[in-house]
Batch of 4 targets.
Target 1
Amino acid sequence: MRRNVTRIGAGLGVGLVATLALPGIASAHVSIEPGTVEGGEGAVIAVRVPNERDDASTTRLRLVLPVETPIGSVRTTEMPGWRSTTATRKLPQPIDVFGRKVDTVVSQVTWTATDGVGIRPGQYEDFDLSLGPLPESGELVFTAVQTYSGGETVSWNEVSADKTTEPEHPAPVLQLTPESGSTATPTPGGTAGAVLPLADATTAEATGTDSAGTVSLALSGAALLVSLLAAVLAWRRGRPAAADAAPTADSVPVMADGATAGDTAERAPEDARP
């Protein structure tokens, strides 16, 4: 029985792993990590890029910043095996960047693999960025263009039309929450269901995607495993103890004359009579 319980537990474990693995596969796209930061100041984020091809590596990433919400300070960090470059654009009106006025901002950042390898199949890479000052609330929608070693390019620039379903190539989104104790005005939004333009290296504000379904599925799978294991353990504990402890014929001692110990004990008073 103990062997059967072990097999049941192993089977449930495999099922749970498969269930939890499905959302990860479905949501393997370019994203911003963390997906939500406090607005109003600067922040350090990472552009997470998974390699989705089995026969090619990711050798180039181009990130286009929102044109509707210019970000005055954009900085990269040194990454082994990668070279980063930036492109800028002129603003119609200067903006305030941490106490100083600027009229030129970064419009896009490009990372290019220098080791000829890049991101191998089955792996991912985080590209760090320092951004600021950020709007006090709302969201920033980016466009990412991923280039593979075979020359294929994938544009992550689609936005959800109904805010619930995820498009095939969703645009990376950074959600902004108001600073503690402040009342913020959300950044202006754009048209949902749009495909962000690439030719002019610009992007527009739009609604982001919802990952709540992924989390709910993972939690449901975990709850199912716990419930089934609890049921198996309860059944084990509820079996009659006598069934487990019942003696067998092989376990009763046999005396030299062929009688059992119980028989000898019963005859003892009779043998002791004068």
Target 2
Amino acid sequence: MGARQPRASNTHTSHTSLALLSSRQPNHHLSTASPVGSIFDLSMPARQASHVYSKAKGVELLHTVRQTKWAVTKAREWLSLHGMNVTFEDFTDEQLDQMLLGFYTSGLKKDGSSFSATALLAFRTALNRYLHKRGRSVNIATSHKFKQSNAVLSRLMSTSVKVNKTISMADIKLMYTSGTLSNSTPESLLYKVWFELQMNFGSKLDWSKVLAEHFFFSHDSLGKLVVTWNTCGLGNCDQMTVIEADDGRYCPVNSLHLYMKHRNQSGKAMLQVPASKDLQIKGVWYLPEDIRDYKEKSFMKKISSLAKLSRIYTNACVLNCSEEYYQAMLSLNHVNPETSATSRIQ
């Protein structure tokens, strides 16, 4: 991952914030053993599935509460450190804007390092939620009254990601060898299937149109596992896509087959939200909830971070690295190019 860009300093803003804040203002075709634990019973009764989903929502709510508490604590710590009134709930919009601007540019973690742009975005969201619950009618993210702090955060967000046109072969190999793309966990399996389907389709996918019922597993005359993917209507494609197993440890067909076994049959969408760890212990890998579009758009950034790649990549890079992916798989699996087949048929 590339070095973090230095934050912009603003001497004028720092003095202004001190002055403002110092005053107190108010699948059934085949069977495959799972590499981890038991396989989720896809015929789970509706009542049980509903209970599982409700429990997962409770876990998500707890996470939200913790995030809000974290943001409030950090805001008060920053204000106290700078000798300011810590009761930011009473600040005017202008004072809140200056507090946020100051925190974005000088807030530090316990180890003395700067917060990532993603953490700062979460900080803003949590504070906005906290103020709403206290009856404060404000939208920090969109109100023009917070244009100074939002401008700084936008700049930090844009400079924190180094956009690259393609993913290097070395980084693709690292995505696999690090376990970030693997069959081991619901999250790593989701990322692996997401990445490899795009590699095999070779074009941008509208994931809202990719359904589990579009995939069919069978064996060829040699007994090799094959998946036929009905990609008609996806993009400009009017063909079926056939993906063959490659006998390697990172085989995309085996991973896709495993994902189909674990996915929650209560939902039709292909990409589903991974279950929490306590539900995974019970054999539940995915919730009957679709991955939101904005979440899917950040998958490659998340993968880059988890695998500790040489830089942060965006989803757009995935469509430009087919040659690098092919070479990486040859290197990882040590297979003959002629036996690693991905083809289209009419």
Target 3
Amino acid sequence: MKNIFTMVLAGGKGERLNPLTAQRAKPAVPFGGKYRIIDFTLSNCLNSGLRKVAVLIQYKSHSLDRHIRAGWNILSADLDEYIASVPPQQRISEDWYRGTADAVYQNMFLIDDEHPEFLLILAGDHIYKMNYAEMYHWLIATSADAVVGAIDIPIQEASRFGVIAVNEDYRITRFDEKPANPISLPNDPDHAFASMGIYLFRTKVIREYLLADAKEGSAHDFGKNIIPKMIADKRVYAFKFQDANKKAVKYWRDIGTLDAYWEANMDLVSVDPQFNFYDAEWPIRTYQGQFPPAKFVFAQDFQGGRMGV
């Protein structure tokens, strides 16, 4: 996967998660007891063989930046491998990122430095397991210019997401951002294809669209602007989510609200949890603090037994 450069979008405010995001960015919010939300996307990158990853940070970024430097500085600089946080550079203007596409556009210099054949764009605030190499193989097999990660969801939930309409070959024919009347899947009126916020592009193609989108009058958003325009004259395909979680039901969670955050944490507490942290073939990494080992000591006589410390 040396010809793929990865950008993780991690600069959103996460206002619907207040007060959890009062002092930190949404991707830095703790999850599952010991992890941060961004650990799942970065673990997917590592497990997929991606070795050039730029995390685009912005709002309240200190906690997130510190976590990435302390917990993810694990690749070989001698081999030109890295997972690095990138703050706003203001190389093009004095504006903050105006949208997801603008965040990538303002960091075009990173892409130019690497000269990748493909550009992978990921969200840093979702909980899931996915081998991005499979998405790359699908792009090659379909001769696509771009591929959008998609998951089938109940039609009644689809209005909260970007909804993808496809033909029989999974070529995208329409992309609607949070539509009031979402389009169902072919031959399945009860489900729709929702965008996962995962995009794989041929670099020379996306560069053209980012330059055009930088003009005023755009929301500078992949879902609202880039993908709908690209569908008209390029080969854009949906990639049906292949879950590395190895459960009967596919697991992907957008924990953008407090209720969704609580429900996702509750998915972890059963004897056989919906989301599996314990798969040695797909490890989830995080920063590990340096603490002494646990020990057992005698309790006070009136307490009886032993207790752990």
Target 4
Amino acid sequence: MSARPSLPLRLAERFGALAQDAARRVAERGWTRGLALLALCLALFLPGIADLPVTDRDEARFAQATKQMLETGDYVDIRFQDEPRWKKPVGIYWMQAASVAAVGGPEGTGIWAWRIPSVLGAILAVFATAWAFRPLMGAQAAFLAAGLTAISLVLAGEANIAKTDAMLLGLTMVALGAWVRLLTRSGLASAPPPIEIAAGRALDVPDPDAPAAPAGKGWKVDPYHPHAVRAGALPPAEDARRPRPDALALRLILWGALGLAVLVKGPIAPAILALAVLGLWIAERSLAPFRALGFASWGPVLFAVLVIPWLVAIHLASDGMFWIESVGGDFLDKLASGQEKHGAPPGTYFGVVWAVLWPWAPLILLAAPFAWRTRGARATAPLLAIALAWWLIVEATPTKLPHYLLPAAPAAAGLVALWLTSPVAAPRRWQSIAAAILFALVGAALGLATIVLPLYVNGTVSVWGAILAVVGLAFVALGAVALWNAQRRAAVATMFAAALALYPAVLQFALPSLTWGFPSALMASAAAPYEACVGRPADTQSYREPSLVFLQGTGTRLLQPAEAARSLREDPAPLVWIEDRRRDQLDEALNLTGEAQPPALRELTSVTAFNPNRGGVTTLRLLTREGVEPLAACP
């Protein structure tokens, strides 16, 4: 007589059964799948967009450069104050400028307006994943892959930051989807019946796109079936009952998305598509993956029309320096050395992927043997090529940042979705235990930090944030139990629930409450009354974070000690921020000005905060000269 399952396992199984039943009903129709994905995206990506202060340093630099575009009307030459920003193309700046202009312009507008393109890019990535993968694996598995992509921790984070990566992923997946659908236009008119894989088991994945077929042997093995291993045939077309997009339209979508992606972040999207093409070519030994690109069509013309005009304009505006900065100073530097103190040894991403793609990353450990066993399949070959090759590329690159894994996230999610929708044998015991531990460690750290950090820093915690964190931790516990016992259905359901609870708890409540960790926001608020008196933003000597320029205004001057001393001596109404740890530099500069007696200084206000970029607590004081008339009436 077998032992009765524990209460946590029974709860997890019950929740998994309810979630699967709901998902099955949702997945029956295209419009319900779309609504479900949209609701999921909004629940994950909108929390924190307005309440999380602007972050340093990349987001603040992007946002400030966009603000200056709107202030100056120069939409070609990208600058942060007077410093050129030629390391990245112009696409994301144009998108941010459009979103900010649509809500009234930069004056008095919060950072949320700059983040709109990132939110839209993340939503586009989720929908494009479902669209791209449907011809490969069927509607239900593609729907699941899109959902897994949506709940990736890294995508939720990038959706809340005004920079390139979320939009880049969305455009990349649109291009990939158009290429996949161009492949499926040639070949059989419908998907094949179940086939036998190398392990000898028949895999029958329910697919609303495929008609029912009689069981038995003698069926021709189609390598473009989601689980085929052998290769050698052209891909099947989509269900003939649905209208198919015109080939020219698909090629225009493919090359248009590639063009926009290149304008957003250079060659990343073409590289991802190239990995998919090469992976399928290796599996098929056919030129069909290359022919589907449509080099001899109007697609490349559209690509050139989108990309070349700005490249010519920025070449002329920068006297050719754009190529030196973007290719030599950014791209090649990242390949050659750890840029901006972000260097790390190979193997780093294997250690952090469990957090970057949490909550479903531990499922990669379980799905990997299946993905490798079916590596010649229509669905598996391009996805495995993207996921594996991109991982090797970024591991070999000295510069390491967590979001570098993002371009491979949908491909990895697709492989996991194929495994989840396949009746394969249970994973080995050690795999289940390892997956449960990895899932629980990251989830527990996220949930506990949501409660502990605000309590430690502020002495209080948001009630709603704490409630969401506790709910999330409960689902993390249930999910760990499900993984430990190899219950795939229950594990996946609890992963979605944990993400839906913990991400808003972190982004909407915990992080915005940690004002101590955002010095620029505190400084801008403290200096605002004095800036109103003198009619200009305060200067800063040693604290040089770009978020301060964005919050105080483009006119904020980043001064050297001698310049700060000159301002305090000579300006009619000086305002200078100075860190205590650099006060000696200012005092020395004041004593070197040649006058017998340095001017008497008055402290207007001070801020003590944690600077995450420096990794320490800092105290900053806003100084002026004694007897300055415009500041006499200020508080």
